[in-house]
Amino acid sequence: MSMRNSTVRAVNRLTGRWAEAAVAPDGRTGTVLTAAGVWPLLALLADGAGGPARKELAEALGIPADRAAAASRDLLTALGRVPGLQAAVGLWSDSGLPLEPDWAALLPEGAHGTLTGDAAVDGGALDGWAAERTGGLIERMPVTLTEDTRLVLASALALRLRWIRPFRDWPTVIDGGPWSGRNVVGLYRSTSLLHRVRVAEAAGGPVTVLEVVGDGGVDVHLVLGEPEAAAGQVLTGGIAAVTRALPSVDGFSLPWGAAGPGLHVRREAAYRPEPRLDIGTVAFSAEAEHDLLDRAGLFGLETAASRITSGHFPGISRDPLLIGSGSQAAMARFHAKGFEAAAATAFGAVAAGIPPPPPYRVRTIGLRFDRPFGFLAVQRSSRLVLAAGWVADPLPHTPEMEKSQEEKEREEAEAWENEDRDDEDRDDEGWGDGR
User: Fold this and answer.
1) Is the full-model pTM beyond 0.90?
2) In CA terms, which of 20, 23, 362, 417 is 20 to 30 Å from 269?
3) Which domain holds residue 120?
C-alpha cells in the first residue's frame, strides 16, 4: 500500500488522541473506533472550509488544509488496495443545494447521490449504502436526518482477515482478576517466534504487545498494561509501540521472570530445541456508536458546528452550511477462525523402560490476556492503525459452541498438521528484526 508517511502519522495521532479520550480510565466499558474512517471526511471538509473552521480542521488533521483533499483521496485509494479491506466515501445533497464543482470533483465517480427530503426514503438509502459497503457488518448509517439536512458526507470501512495460523479455542474459567469466575471462549496458541511479543515502556507504564499475523497485510496487536494503568494510556502506549514511535524489547531479549504485564519468561525442559511462546487470550466482540460532536474540539469541529456565524464551507457551496451532526458506528470481533479444540488419539503400549529426560532447556514465555486489554488493527507495511478498541468483556462460552467428537478430532489433526507453519511465515514486513 502506498501513502505518504505524513498522512499515516496524522491519522495515527488522531487515533491516539481519540482512543485516550474515548476509553474510560477504569477500562470497565469496551469500545471500538476507526479514526481512519473519520480522517478522510475531515480532510474533505477542511478543503471546503473557510475562516476559523478551516484553521481548526487543519489543526485536528495535522496537515495544512490546502493539502487535505489530496491526502484524503490518496488515503482512500490506498485503503482500497489492501486485501480484505473495503473503503468507500459517499455524498448525498439536497437537489437545491449548489455545490462548488471543484470540490465535488474531489469525490470518486458515482459517489454523489441526492436527498429527496423524505427522511424515511433517504434513511433507507443511506442504511443500504452502509450495509452494502461493509458487507452487512454495519446495518445502519449513524446519521439523523431532519428537514434541515442538506448534505451528508459519509465513509465506510470494512476489514476481514484470517490468521496465518488459527488459535485453538476451549471453554475456560478465569481464575482471578476482574473476570474471575467467568466461563469464556479461551484462545490458545504456541510459536517459536518470540518477536511476536514485545514490551515497551510507555508514559502510562509498561505495555505488552502481541502481534497476531493476518493473511492480507493487516495484523491485530493485543495490548496489555498493568492492572492499575488507565485504559486510554494503555492503548496510546500500544499505538506508539506498534507504529515504532516508542522503542520496545522483543521476546528474545526480555529478562527472565515477570518481564511485562501478563508475561513471564522462564527456562523449561523441552523435547525440541526451539524457544516457545505460549499464548492464552479470549474471543471478544465490541460495538460502539460515537457522537463526534461530543468531542468537537478533538476533531476540529467547534467552529464548523457553531451557529454563531454561518457559511463555514464556502468551498463546498455558496449556500451557508455548518456541521449539524457527526457520528460513527463501529464493531469488531476476534475469534479463532473456526472452532478448534485439542484432542489426542493414542494406542496403549507397555513401556520397555523409563523414557529419557528432555534433552533441552529452552526459553519459554507464558503470556495471558485474562483481564481487560486493548487491540489495534494495523496495516503491516505502512503501520497505519485501521481500528482501535478496548475489551472489557470476553465472549462467554455457551453449550451451543460445543462440537461433536468427530469434529474435534478432525480439527485437532489439522492443528497438529499446521503446528510448524508459523515458523515458516515470511517476516520481512513484520517488526523487521530478522529473527
Assistant:
1) no
2) 417
3) 7-81+85-159+288-331
